[in-house]
Design brief:
CATH superfamily of one domain: Winged helix-like DNA-binding domain superfamily/Winged helix DNA-binding domain
Number of helices: 4
Strand order of the largest sheet: 1-2-3
Number of strands: 5
Order of helices and strands: EEEHHHHEE
Radius of gyration: 20 Å
CATH class of one domain: Mainly Alpha
CATH topology of one domain: Arc Repressor Mutant, subunit A
Strand content: 15-25%
Largest sheet: 3 strands, antiparallel
Distance between the termini: 61 Å
Length: about 120
């Protein structure tokens, strides 16, 4: 079960969370849980930027794929991607079927060719 805040007068808004119920003989247990990336993508109350980032945590995607995963319009995705690229959260990752792929930015880039640790170097 998902629990989401629908109104906040003066308190800060909290992120949605999950609730798990366990039914046993003469006992019911209730526990909270964090939502998975897939569940967070379905939340329309979550900003589009966060939904895009959640979708890209799984794998690289094209804009049409991000539209399907996030529920946002194509124009909204195109408007948010340059900001995410500028903020170094998302990078271009090649092409799939002539469409640009996007993935999360990684601060650990692969070592350049000809690095000092090259075992083929004499």
């Amino acid at each position: 079960m998902l629990v989401r805040q629908t109104k906040a007068n003066f308190a800060p808004e909290i992120k949605p969370f999950g609730v798990s119920f366990t039914f046993e003989a003469k006992q019911v247990s209730i526990e909270t849980r964090t939502l998975t990336n897939t569940e967070m993508m379905d939340e329309e109350r979550i900003p589009v930027r966060e939904r895009i980032l959640a979708a890209l945590r799984e794998e690289s995607h094209t804009v049409p794929e991000l539209v399907k995963l996030t529920g946002a319009s194509e124009g909204t995705i195109y408007n948010n991607l340059p900001r995410l690229v500028d903020d170094e959260k998302v990078v271009h990752d090649g092409y799939r079927e002539r469409r640009k792929l996007y993935r999360l930015f990684s601060s650990s880039s692969p070592p350049p060719k000809g690095d000092q640790d090259d075992e083929n170097q004499n």
